[in-house]
Amino acid sequence: MSQPVAPVRHVLIEGNKTYHQITEDLVSPTERTPTREWIVAFSLSAVFLSLYLFTIVWTVWKGIGEWGANRTINWAWDITNFVWWIGIGHAGTLISAILLLFRQRWRTGVNRAAEAMTIFAVICAGQFPIFHMGRVWLAFFIFPFPNTRGPLWVNFNSPLLWDVFAISTYFSVSLLFWYTGLVPDLATVRDRATGFRRKVYETFSFGWTGAAKHWQRWESLSLVLAGISTPLVLSVHTIVSFDFATSVIPGWHTTIFPPYFVAGAIFSGFAMVQTLMVLTRKVLRLEEYITLNHIESMNKVIVLTGTIVGVAYLTELFIAWYSGYVYEQFAFYNRVTGIYWWAYFGMMFCNVVSPQLFWSRKIRRSIWWTFFLSIVVNIGMWFERFVIIGTTLARDYLPSSWSYYNPTWVEIGIYTGTIGLFFFCYLIFVRVAPVVAIAEVKSILKVAGDQYIGPNARARHAASGEKTSVKAEKED
Amino acid sequence: MRQDNGIWVGTDDLQRDEAFMQNASAEFSLDNIDQTDGQWSTNRRDFLKLLGFGLGAATVAASCEIPMRRAVPYVTKPDTIVPGVANYYASAFVNGGDYCPILVKTRDGRPIKIEGNSLSAMTGGGTSARAQALVLSLYDTTRVKGPIALAEEDEPTELTWEKLDKNVKGNLAQGGIRIITQTVLSPTAKKAMGEFVAKYPDTQVVVYDPVSSAALLTANEQAFGIRALPSYRFDKADVIVSFGADFLGTWISPIEYAAAYAKKRKLSKAVKGEMSRHYQVESHMSLTGSNADNRILVKPSEQGAAICTLFNEVAALTGNAGVGGPKVNDKAATALKKVAKELVNAKGLSLIVSNSNNVAEQLIVNKLNALLGNLNETVDFSALSYQRQGNEQDLTRLINDMNGGAVNTVIVWNANPAYDLPNADKFIDAFKKVKNRIGCSLVMDETTSLCTLVAPVHHNLESWSDAEAKEGHISIIQPTIAPLFNTRQAEHSLLEWADSANLNREDDQPYYPYLKAHWAAELFAKQNKYNSATAFWDMSLHDGLLDIPATGRTVTYNESANADAAAVTQPSGSEVEISFYETVNIGGGQYAHNPWLQEMPDPVLRTVWGNYLSIPVEWDGVNNINGWKDLNDGDHVTVDINGRSEKCTVVRTFGQMPGTVAIALGQGRTAGGCGVGHGVNAGAWLTVQNGLTQYHAGNATVSATGTKEKLLATVQYHHTMGVRAEGKEEGAVINADEKVLGWKGFQGSLTDRSIIFQANQSELPELKERMTKFHEHAKHLNEQTLYPDRTEWFAEGPKWGMYIDLNACIGCGACQVACVSENNVPVVGKNEVARHHEMTWLRIDRYFYGDLENPSVVYQPMMCQHCDNAPCENVCPVNATNHSNEGLNQMAYNRCIGTRYCANNCPYKVRRFNWLDYTTADNWPGNEERVLHVDDKPFYADNLVRMVLNPDVTVRSRGVIEKCSLCVQRIQEGKLTAKREARMIEDNDVRTACQTSCPTGAIVFGNVNNPNSIVNKAKNGALDYQVLEEINTRPIVEYSAKVRNSNEALFS
Prior knowledge:
Chain A has about 475 residues and is an all-alpha fold. Chain A has 17 helices and no strands.
């Protein structure tokens, strides 16, 4: 995928890398024994994963009554967390599919990790719709299949059913896309591995030989999958938003929800990618592949989508006022100033105000600011979902039924537990597969490597041979 | 020789060995099947045998673990019992003076539901929550299960009845006998007591009521020469003034009064301008006060002053002499002056009642009724009421006697003086000094646990008895189930102990012939309906009622009765006064051990499981409605009255007069059943004046403890729908509650909702216009739909509909308990209600509106609205809820997976989720910690309690949604009846549980496709509406606007 390139393009691979060095740098994390940081992080995730398993078993055994949800607020942290995780799961596909179609080269540094994050986030998200069911042992009722229970079919009118289709489709396509990208890299790992390890990678790389025909098919498949995924990026969160938009509850029943949810999803997804990338590049020493330019590009996406989300918030308020409809007006009045006003202000501050700092180039290129704000944005996006679900349900049509909600330790355990589940998966992933797509990075070396473009490219190019040998010696 | 193809497999083959050749040719012979190559120890057949044996053994072994439940058919089937078909037996609910003629629905010999007896002229078929809950107390696991002897410190020992009788007779022989009981309505029981007294002449019967009307009885005796209550004719009164009397909820005969009251309150009456006007003078918002057109606030100690003031005003207007007396607060005085004018204009058509337990006050009320010409009109003595007979003055004497050693034996029958007397401590001390203490009661309550012998009695539904609540209106009580435990009726015990010759001990049910004999001897002659004694008994038993022609008695006020204003309660002038009141559900404590009643929300406070201190609310004029002293709902306070202090939980209550607080009686129980441990015993604060219990006290100090109740069990958190007060910032009267919502909320945020429509009668045309416009607007909005109109789906067959007249609904909660009983709605307990997990299918929303300090109330029974365009139906992913072509929104519990989307999407929030295993349907002990426990086990886990379940209604398990089905089991039954009789379905074929229980007929149900159905006839055109009509859900439940007949110029 090398195209002619204007010299004004950013340097995306630093350190005057050769192809071999790229392989070395990116494959070696899977070959070394785990670092202490990794072991600590992994143990911590395992603890939270255990907490997750414990609280889920507790819920199924004892009943949903162990949660704080109640007769008025029937969904609370469960669906909030579901939408939050699904939102996070959006960046991967966006980066791999839409940015691929747009020929955004900077995606190559982050797409692998972002796609993995997508898969794991969707796994986490999927837990909630399943385990929020009162009778989870009958969850298979939601699948339309010929059955012996009479002519009993699912209700195709229900947005919850659309969710089932949307999420399972999204998950399968994302998984496929991610794995397709992995195949050449797994082959690279295989080629360097020996013994049993080699056998495993041989199996998983599907006999990849690097033949031209393989590459050609691989490129075609990537493009086809990108084509399939692109509408999914838009459809999944649109359908998730239908869970709310098709209801009659004021504050949910709004046509703005699909675009607003999609923008919010990309927003939170990029924020999560930032959180992970900032950590990963540091821990795995990949600063030369995930450069400040990458981070800056993603921050630009964050400020754009954050602003879109902000416009959506204001539009909602305007439409509520303009509707002249008392329930709608009250619902939004209540969001802003009602019992859960702190959640609304948390959302506004974190999602709309805080990303505006990224207008400053200095902050955009600051690792610390990026890390801090990416966390703030994800807190804000969690608040957004809670505002939409909790605050809206707490005070709907009949004042007699208004109530308040507080989470119990079980719900907190499940939520923090899914974070454990997520990092558990992610940490295993960084140990077994290259976190940066080797083949794709190599493909842009000549158009984005600092020896070819950027200031002093030629000079460094000339000196590159010498530099490389020096580095190689050091490593020995 | 080689084989033809030249291939050989071994030397045997090559040499054509004989044995080999034989085997080779018989390769597939049957003999060889058993003989494999010797490597397998088990061949195919053995394998199959082993498999079969193994499976069989495993099956048999596994089967042994399954408990067998045998359904044993009758050898000789009783004629009356058809499995699956309910029998109804006429009977009556009686508890002390509480009375309701009922039909008991039994299925396969088990009473499961109470219906009203519509033959009764008194109640017309209405019931109360207390009557509805009767059936659950039958299956109370904490009942005393047989005669026992209790000795201090020793374990109780079980006795036989013979032994107990022998003991008791030995005790009785010593003389000095007292019987303590509540009001006894049964003439036959009185006869039995008479026999007992004849045998033991040294017996005194002490009668008291847990909440006393003794002063009223005394006043009637002095004024009219009759120590009984008149029939109050609320249906004849155009102007009603009640001084604290909660006649719709708790006072004397609420079912009867509510039915009569509603006749003059229904919307049709309001439209015709024939509505009565009702003034309530009180400090704490009672159920009756909440229904009043105007409430006049007076402090509890000012009630006497208010009565005097009204009397003086009326006397002045009619040219009679006043009584003088203390002054009431100025605001009340102004109002009472106007009330007096109205009363004088409605001579003979007004009614004054009071709950004062002060003889002078009641005498002035009697005199006032006489002055207004109400005697023999609305105060009717032609049929006396016997529903309160107690006189607690006798108890003071009893306590002295017991202390003085004059008493050897006390028999306590259906009374709990160790709990409900104001001086219970003194009673307990004296009681313990009595040698022989015999308790005839149902449960081990505070008094029974102090007894030496317990002779447990039958439950109401296991007994033979009768009840004359009103002169000439006699009910027969018949057993509907054989006694569940080794119990005996108290009347039987008394006769046994009296060695009565009239008791046929050989009979299966010895008291039955006694009762029958009494009826034949005493009542047959008095009636003129039946000619033969057999027909008389059979038909009376069948109807459950006997009406003897009225006496035609009239009375005049005896002028020598000393209506002395000096003896009325003097206003105390103390800073904080407290009043103690009886609640609709718990009474004075008699019903505290009934889980259905404990979990029925108090109509006004909306709290359950316990009692809460009502404190007034204060509007700061800007942005807050605060509790008095800045207390908030659920704050703990220490209430100190006359040196006795208790920790109470506060609930801010609209309509509570400033400077007063109030708390309910009947809670804070220490013994007896599920009611133990909830709330505080406010009865211990009651004071006694001239031997009469006073239900208020002055000098109450309330101080915050700084702690908060974690389990504030209330079912409603927002209480108002536009309470108006002066806004300081606006400089005008605004809806204060709307301003409080959020930051300086916006006006109209509550009142513009189409949930409640209300107006005063004087504004009826404006209301009609407003509602007509609203209907048009809603119709316009609803026509903007993309979907086709599907009305024609409901054109064939019946289409069910419900109509609720909010003017007739008094909020008494009978329907709610009836629904719980009919539909197996689980009781969840205090913990779960505090977590907003109550399961009631039908709730009664209560909203305050109007003046913030003295608001009006509207009650709105809210159940599934069965929307034709139901939001719940299209969001269910598995089609667990769907619509019938009769307009019912149906739930298929088996299909429900519990996503709860339907509950979120229900605009009426009537769907209920089984958060936990409330019914113990899973039989899975690990998940039952949070559900209601009685006797240390989950409430429904006991098979005895499960006997109350209606077999026609599925018991729901954990994790499914449930909601009102409009009693679909009754609809099905009605349809089958009509089908069997080959006719169209009629209104009376199907009546929902809420409808039949309602004492005022506020709920009407029927087929809207039939133009002549009662539901269509009940409607009132433009004044009817559907809740949230404009969101196009198309509910089939319709409500009427709430119309009040307030005197708007009362306080100006």
